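User: What would this chain look like folded?
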Amino acid sequence: MIWVAFLSLLSTSSLVQGMTDVERLELRYEAEDMFYHAYNAYMSNAWPADELMPLSCRGRFRGREPNRGDIDDAMGNFSLTLIDSLDMLVVLGDLEEFEASVKKVINTVSFDSDIVVSVFETNIRIVGGLLSGHVLAELVQAKQKGMSWYRGELLNMAIDCGTRLLPAFNSTTGLPYPRVNLRTGLQGVNSIQLTCTACAGSMILEFAALSRLSGEKIFEEKASKAMDVLWSARHRQSNLVGNVLNVNTGDWVRRDSGVGAGIDSYYEYVAKAYVLLGEDKYLERWNSHYSAVMKYLGSGPLMMDVHMHRPTTNSKHFVDALGAFWPGLQVLMGDLKPAIEQHEVLYQIMKRHNFLPEAVTADFQVHWGQHLLRPEFVESTYFLYKATQDPYYLEVGKKVLKSLQKHARVTCGYAAVKDVRTLQHEDRMDSFVITETFKYLYLLFAKEEDMFLDISQFVFTTEAHLLPLTLARLSNSTAVPVSDDFFYDEDEDVEY
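Assistant: Here's the prediction, encoded as structure tokens.
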């Protein structure tokens, strides 16, 4: 009955009157102001630190603040938030600040540090940010809007950073280790052999772009092989992947399968690798994975995790907020109806709690109340509006925007919410708030004819960085095949 009730709410979209151009313009300006409020707070109070601490109003440098565990591995004392923000400045048409920021990155950022970083986070945020910045710098230059001095410095920095990540791929299977030392490679960190599927499977867009822009084939070769290994490691009856595996044996350590944390961007990159690179193998893999996900996870109001080898059995009783990207990916790949339905369920949860909690139970209760101002829900809202032009999604975006303004905006940027039930703040503003959350909000309310960029000519990475579709025209002969029976071990306890 709950499911029926939620589905009945879908009809409400038809009741929404079109948002006036004036209100939409006001919301576009408000989204733009939100970006600058956060960006200027970072630049004035935190840069060259990686992140802004919005309650303390100072920068978070790696090694100077108390260690927060794995989440600190996204930081490498390389001006993370600035690099992550570069392409947003071009989206806004702020070419003067973009040019100044590019110069700051070129003149101040170094990757030659004795720091252990996450391969996944450094790739999607730093390599992706530098590549997008490079492509857009050349575009600005070609349009004669500035950057006349630019000679590919950001691309060179991306090559430097990518090269420092390459030792991660020196495993028995070719799957990347989850962490490397930027200066010494795997030295001291090769004992960490377990990685998540998304961590190993979210390299192909950035590394293929790096190869095709630089001519250095090794990046795409390594990332492509990792994708091949993950495909071969899928469960052959269910066509699902698990959550965590060993990079040297290829064996699954956690076999729960979903579309949220640990797996999310692997599926996203299988789909987008086809869109960006034009290689048929990725479309074939997407179709197999997608059919399996919808068969085993798509029957209820929330997409609950299952066991990859027993896909009719749920593996946990809650779902996490990262899975909110899924409707947007469904839109991109052409399956609109389930995207609308899943998004509406998430919206009802969001309205109940002001934000989407980090995790909710099967009956929509708060499991984990934290909210990091994540972008995934507004990302899906943006893609649904692009596909349907239904003003309902403008109203959804307005609700998200107003919640952020009311409950997360502080004097010095935007603060994460420790618990949606108390709305207490946390001294944290991840770089993705600026580069993703505010970017998708702005794009939702902006009209294409008013923008400097033709967004339709780009693919969004999982960090919302822009990679040009023209990359498909460049060489795609660098894929390294893995035998079809690679690491395949039949499970004895399969139920299907």
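Confidence is low (pLDDT under 50) at residues 1-15, 476-496. If you want, I can go into more detail on any region.
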